[in-house]
## 1
Amino acid sequence: MTVLSVNVNKIALLRNSRGRDFPSVVGFSEQLIKLGVKGITVHPRPDERHITRRDVYALSEMLKDNPQVEFNIEGYPSEDFMKMVLEVCPDQCTLVPDSPGQLTSDHGWNIPQHKPVLQQVLSELRNSGVRSSLFLDPNLEMIDHVSRLAADRVELYTEDFASHYAGPEQEPVFERYRVAAERAGQLGIGVNAGHDLDLQNLAKFLQIPNILEVSIGHALIVESLQTGIAAVIERYLAIVDAS
């Protein structure tokens, strides 16, 4: 069964825009857990424009009371990032090749270029009992490199799949992801996926066997706003109409 891990970065972004703890990242995550979500993902960035270090530690404390829920921390393996991860010891750490000011993740690792750094941090994660995952394009050559690094999983960067969904190139693009996931499985590497998956395209993507986890944030939050707005407006109108 595929685990849904909800990325709560956008909740932190909303909170940070007002300067008080509303919406609460921890409170929202607790609500997700009550609804049946089995994974929480955060991607703290150096400028703390959404998830902060404080959020990471607060979520870690809350999740100690919810051992059925996995905690996944994403990010570039800088010294500060790794120090935090090794202190928190989440269930999973997803290493992403982002530059400090990058708006959002937009490519996977070029493993040969970063092999010494990745070898070091993967060893640190392994020694701390943290499952590792490498953010990767659906590239067979890179997946072969992953097996030599002994990372536990890859997270396939799915923007290309999402951008071609329902278009003329959907099937050949989908096939690249299917083949990449199959190769990873043959090498004993677990497969996660994430980025721009949504309610329209997720079912198609999960026709690929043995996807262990999907990490979804931006689309899920937007869809929640769209789906819930009718009920919220109805309640506001009832209050003002009664005044």
## 2
Amino acid sequence: MKKNLYFIFIITILLFLYIFLLSLNYVESVSYNLSENVFRLHIIANSDSEEDQSLKLKVRDNIVNYMNQLSNNCSNKNDVLTLVKNNVNNFKEIALNTIKENGYDYDVNIEIGNFYFPTKTYGDISFPSGNYDALKIEIGNAIGQNWWCVLFPPLCFVNASSGIVPEESKNCLKDNMDSEGYKIISEGNSQTSDESNIKIKFKLIEFFNNLGK
């Protein structure tokens, strides 16, 4: 009897480890696909005052407008990343000029790197939490609320009233991602999707990525 229980225990542990490793491998594959094809923007306001939060949005608007002009002919994330690196001084100048034009003298710190992002939804597209390459802009003391968005594909100005991502941006995502990755971001966090297995996978990615936060 004890031998049977011991055997069942060992089989259960091995089965658990097998499922765990399969899940981990899946999460790493999808997360890598997302990270390799998405470039994000993170702006941190000087403080949570109404004035500083308004200033943050003005900096955002000018940064995104400039980025859209730069990346108009870009078809993949690597091209966008190269452009951003080559124009990082211009981004800083735009942010500083915007701050000065609005009557403030805050300094700006700009960094290009790989950063952790929480789960974020843009219209009908959701990105699970995880590490993404991004342009991070810190205004002044940088202790205010954040602004997070996606510079490539361009999702920073999603129509808030309709909550729908433009087809052009979706097509760009489809062209740069594998089918599984696109399903995850387009259906994984949807309240109307019938693909329950995709939702489970989305939550699985969040769970494992948050473990390493």
## 3
Amino acid sequence: MVKGFEEVVRKLSGKHSELCLFAVLKMDDLVDKWSVIISGTWSDDKMKRKEIFDDAVSLMTDEFDESELGSIARVGIFSQNEHLITLLSKYKKGTSFDNEKINGNQIFEGYILESKSCVA
């Protein structure tokens, strides 16, 4: 599914160039599902956040089949000031996680698909 998420990032970045972080993480040992974490310079603007959320969900719906969509637990749009975003932003694009603890959260599997410094 990572290749599909990479395509979502490519399309989302093309439309919203201020995309600063896009990570997919499996954080629940009981449920094998992805959490999609997104942040950008627009993340404090409620209207823009909704637009990004809607675009991301639409792109995922186009990219993934029903079974794959069922493996996505949540999509979250976060402010760049959020502690989790600050921690994840320290990792470079292409970083993968395997059984690591970040911000008190156990990440069983994860990928940083976009990570760049942005000024809000």
